[in-house]
Recover the amino acids of this structure.
């Protein structure tokens, strides 16, 4: 994942999960609602826009494109700051996490992509119940408890997740393409829109639109 695609993913998360002036982010089918605005925001960031320029851009999008009055100008200011932080994160590049505690701390500081991480722990307290929407753990090797966590839109492509616990987790729109899911629990998890095609679950390959047993 290059800098541009990394930044695009971070900006998409901020616009849909955090900004969302239309209030549509409860529906994963609306995940692309603000996608057409990403290119303009990327251009501003690359040209060195400051918080004020980004704030004005967000307000203009709402007033002229969405044709609504900004519901929360202070929120727009927070989002402008978050976009600047996302740009700095993307410039630093992707770094695997070495522990569940580190992953959570870095996620809460704005990072979302932890490809290649190797984390194995039987501690069920660190990530259980946490908000980890759009978390990316591609090509990772992890044994973690995500019990009751919010993982909407998370990406576990080609990850080895043996022994991980997703019971009662919110996995709407999550991606598990090609992942290894032996001894992995999905009991009472929300799986609407989740994708498991070509994932290996208990020694069998799942097909498109097929889910693991709960």
């Amino acid at each position: 994942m290059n800098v541009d695609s990394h930044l695009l993913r971070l900006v998409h998360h901020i616009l849909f999960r955090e900004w969302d002036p239309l209030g549509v982010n409860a529906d994963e089918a609306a995940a692309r609602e603000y996608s057409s605005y990403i290119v303009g925001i990327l251009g501003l960031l690359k040209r060195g826009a400051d918080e004020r320029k980004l704030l004005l851009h967000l307000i203009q999008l709402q007033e002229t494109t969405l044709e609504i009055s900004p519901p929360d100008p202070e929120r727009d200011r927070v989002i402008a700051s978050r976009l600047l932080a996302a740009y700095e994160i993307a410039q630093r590049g992707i770094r695997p996490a070495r522990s569940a505690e580190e992953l959570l701390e870095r996620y809460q500081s704005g990072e979302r992509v932890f490809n290649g991480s190797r984390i194995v722990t039987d501690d069920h307290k660190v990530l259980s119940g946490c908000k980890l929407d759009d978390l990316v753990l591609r090509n990772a090797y992890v044994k973690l408890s995500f019990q009751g966590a919010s993982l909407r839109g998370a990406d576990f492509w080609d990850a080895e997740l043996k022994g991980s616990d997703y019971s009662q987790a919110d996995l709407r729109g999550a991606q598990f393409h090609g992942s290894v899911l032996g001894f992995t629990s999905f009991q009472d998890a929300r799986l609407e829109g989740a994708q498991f095609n070509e994932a290996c679950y208990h020694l069998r390959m799942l097909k498109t639109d097929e889910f693991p047993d709960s």
